[in-house]
Amino acid sequence: MNSQTISKTNEQLMLKCLKLLENWNQTDIPIAALIYNPQTDLIIAGAVNQKEIEIDPTEHAEIIAIRKASKINKSSNLTGLTLITTLEPCQMCAGAILNSKISKVIFGAWDEKFGAAGSVWDLLRDPLSPSHPEVIGGVLAEDSKQILQDFFKKIRKNKINNINISL
Ligand SMILES: [Zn+2]
Which of 48, 49, 107, 161 has the most CB atoms within 10 Å of its CB? Predict the structure, then answer.
């Protein structure tokens, strides 16, 4: 057996992240995040968006995953670790990524409204930013996008149904 650790590919990590969104029946927008240690080949934290369920606008999947990983690592410095998220991080999450000194960010779908990793803003690669993690966007983007589209379709359908009921 080869004793050398073989780290997972970006696609393999994204598939693991997408798994957290399987059979999604929550009121929150389906977005998931993982924190991965390429040195040990272990996923150390995972989280999903809980903004609505927690009634807290800071409860994005990336923030929760960073909090969990920091607690597990007993350090607020997550240098060397990789964050995987199904949707491009927003400004708040990009800020948390920079503060945590995460070394690499892999994301799925682009977010043309709030994306801060290349779409609307590019905080992670801004020359003024204190650190510059490696950023790989658009990994299995169609899969993440499909999950989001299915979710919004379901919401619209439920809204129409509700209107029909109230009539
Ligand atoms: Zn966010």
Answer: 107
